[in-house]
Design a protein that fits this description.
Layout lengths: L1 H33 L3 E5 L1 E17 L2 E5 L4 E6 L6 E2 L4 E5 L2 H43 L5 H41 L1 E3 L4 E6 L6 E2 L7 E6 L4 E9 H4 L7 E6 L7 E15 L2 E11 L10 E18 H5 L10 H7 L10 H13 L3 H21 L4 H22 L5 H11 L7 E9 L2 E12 L3 E5 L8 E6 L19
Antiparallel strand pairs: 1-19, 2-11, 2-15, 3-10, 4-6, 4-9, 5-8, 6-7, 8-10, 11-14, 12-13, 12-15, 13-14, 15-18, 16-17, 17-18
Length: 495
């Protein structure tokens, strides 16, 4: 009986043991599989440069609008686009026929006035002789004093007539001079040495100079000396100083970087839909003439440089272990500052970023794509505006684009959109708080740090426990990072 009872008990014990072993193997394997392997970044010492990114338009430092002060039909053009000109050179001619006839008419009027002067002088001389004879006869009492009075009146009238016709001669001379000036103005001459960058008329076209002189040409004084007109957000303009180094790129020459410096920070603000910007002029040397007026330039202005600071990759500031709260907001902003991007593809890059990070649905994607297509054409057309109006029009278009995108977004998407736009304007991280993670007994341990300058890829850090050469966690090896993925390729925007 005992043997029959012992055998089932043995079988049960074996089953329990196998189950326990399987469970132990399962949990051990699962723990081994889920044990993360980390990637590390090293705290380094070296130089760090903070910049502000913006976009602007290339323009000559000095450009002159050449118009006409007289109305008429354009008879001849002597220059075209890209034609070099010298000051005083004849570049166009208005049909002079009407003005030539006017000159001839005024010449004839002047001659008639001069003839009238001659007649009046003859009459005056005759009246003077008559007055002299009458005065002598009165003294001899051959005529009455009344005759003397009449002779005196005739003399005074003749003298007044001479003064009158002499005034008419001066008037006719002035009219003739004015007609000759108008005739001379039919010849349009270059006011400065330079290159014709715009021609607005053709032969046979009629121009009317009524309230203002119509624009015929635009002459750039010296295309070897250019400047970039950029719009800087009010949050960044406080860091702008004359003489700061700047670099910029243009779509026409991908991969090439041009150098310049801040030439002027204009104090006049431009406000469009509560967006306040200031115009900053950046010099752009153009000795080889490759840069052309109207090109869109993506500019980075150096606002601060540190030669030897402790810095760490921004990926380390973005990292956080699973289940941990996010890093301080100011650290994330510094860590996620955009790298240099640009070119005409920047709007497409921004659209792709919005789609990915805001998780736009199909309807939102379609509306956002329509907005970008509309604004792309609008930005292109604005380049044809005069220099003084172009900046305001661009600022208006940027504000309208932002507002249009915000209308498409859901309330929960708008905060992240605002963050993305702040990053796209190139605002570097300011002094603030951050958090780094190090391994301590195989587990991530947080170290709070102070953050400073950032160049978009690395950020200045300081604090207790942060030494040169120390390794900090930047990501989880072989798969998805615990932190949000690095936002690469964030473009510098028109915004």
């Amino acid at each position: 009986m005992a043997n029959r009872i012992g055998r089932p008990g043995l079988i049960a014990a074996v089953i329990v043991a196998v189950a326990a072993a399987a469970a132990a193997y399962y949990w051990t394997s699962r723990d081994a599989k889920q044990a993360p392997t980390y990637r590390f970044a090293r705290v380094e010492r070296g130089p760090l440069t903070a910049t502000v990114a913006a976009s602007g338009t290339l323009n000559p430092v000095t450009s002159v609008q050449v118009g006409t002060q007289v109305s008429g039909q354009v008879k001849e053009l002597f220059v075209d686009f890209n034609s070099p000109v010298k000051a005083g050179q004849l570049i166009a001619r208005i049909d002079p026929e009407t003005f030539q006839y006017r000159v001839r008419q005024n010449e004839a009027d002047l001659e008639a006035a001069r003839a009238a002067v001659a007649r009046a002088q003859v009459s005056l001389a005759n009246a003077q002789r008559e007055l002299s004879r009458t005065r002598e006869l009165v003294q001899r009492e051959f005529v009455s004093p009344a005759d003397l009075d009449r002779a005196q009146a005739q003399f005074d009238l003749a003298k007044a007539e001479v003064n009158n016709v002499q005034a008419v001669v001066a008037q006719r001379a002035a009219q003739l001079a004015s007609a000759r000036v108008d005739l001379a103005r039919t010849e349009i001459r270059a006011p400065v040495d330079g290159v014709v960058i715009k021609r607005s008329v053709d032969v046979g076209q009629t121009v009317a100079a009524s309230l203002q002189a119509p624009e015929l040409f635009v002459i750039a004084r010296d295309l070897r000396d250019m400047q970039v007109e950029t719009s800087i957000d009010e949050a960044d303009v406080g860091r702008m100083r004359v003489g700061q180094r700047a670099t910029f790129t243009v779509d026409a020459f991908p991969g090439r970087t041009f150098s310049g410096e801040v030439r002027q920070v204009r104090k006049s603000a431009q406000t469009v839909q509560n967006v306040v910007t200031y115009t900053v002029l950046v010099s752009a040397a153009n000795p080889d003439g490759q840069l052309m007026p109207g090109m869109t330039a993506n500019v980075r202005i150096v606002t601060d440089t540190r030669e030897s600071v402790l810095k760490v990759a921004n990926a380390a500031l973005r990292f956080r272990p699973p289940g941990e709260s996010a890093a301080p907001a100011d650290a994330r902003a510094a860590a996620e500052a955009p790298p240099a991007g640009g070119g005409g593809a920047q709007m497409q890059q921004l659209r792709e970023r919005l789609v990915a990070e805001l998780k736009l649905d199909e309807a939102q994607q379609a509306r956002v794509q329509a907005i970008f297509e509309q604004m792309r054409g609008r930005f292109t057309s604005l380049r044809e505006l005069p220099e003084e109006a172009r900046g305001k029009a661009m600022a208006t278009a940027r504000a309208e684009m932002r507002a249009g995108i915000e209308e498409v977004l859901k309330p929960e998407q708008k905060p992240l959109f605002a963050q993305i736009m702040a990053e796209a304007t190139g605002r570097s991280g300011q002094a603030g708080r951050g958090r780094l993670w190090v391994l301590d007994d195989g587990r991530p341990k947080a170290i709070d740090v102070r953050t400073g300058l950032t160049d978009g890829s690395s950020t200045e850090v300081s604090g207790t426990g942060i030494d040169e050469g120390r390794e900090v966690i930047s990501a989880i090896q072989g798969g998805a990072s615990a932190a949000p993925a690095a936002r690469s390729g964030a473009p510098r925007m028109f915004f």
